[in-house]
Amino acid sequence: MPSQIEAEIKLAGPTLDALQQRLTAAGFTLELTTPRHFEDNWLFDTPTRSLFNTRQALRVRLRDDLDGATVTHKGKPVETPASGVKVREELELTVSDGHTLIQLFKKLGFEKTFRYQKFRTIYRLRHSTGLDLWAMFDETPIGCFVELEGDQAAIERLIQQLGLARDDYITASYPRLQFERCQAMGRPLEDMTFALAVGDGR
């Protein structure tokens, strides 16, 4: 069960090409590591929302290019004062049958609190200055994003390398972005899924 300390930010753009060009214009090279694939993410919590209330998360991720699923526990984030970048521990493991695991969580009393989907392409992002991190290009029902992930020092250097002001990047998760979007429309939180879901976890 690998454990790692993760920091990340997101950049939004009109298209994935525009986001790639933004990075290459700043001198970064992108090495494709995982071709475009579909991800279906399910968040679970206790009936009392004990995870949400302590800023933790339990996620089951299904992918159309892999058998099985990935289960992730996200620990309580620590927010760095200057940049707002959140740093948190993640525990992750792979299981052979994600759909059965989803049913198991439900039988154990966990509730599905949110579901979000995306098409993701993963690159290794490198710069001549020595910066080395991950770039996940996401096509979501609410727009295009690149999620930039590494350790805290790498993300802080990336922000400087790109000349980003605090308002130029996003530290919120996809559930938070969808919550704010629904709130702005006067609606309760809705799942962030495509009209024709590829996998439904039944």
UniProtKB/TrEMBL annotation:
Domain of life the protein comes from: Bacteria
InterPro entries linked to this entry: Adenylyl_cyclase_CyaB, CYTH-like_dom_sf, CYTH_domain
Gene source species: Chloracidobacterium validum
Residues in CYTH domain copies: 4-180
Record's protein name: Class IV adenylate cyclase
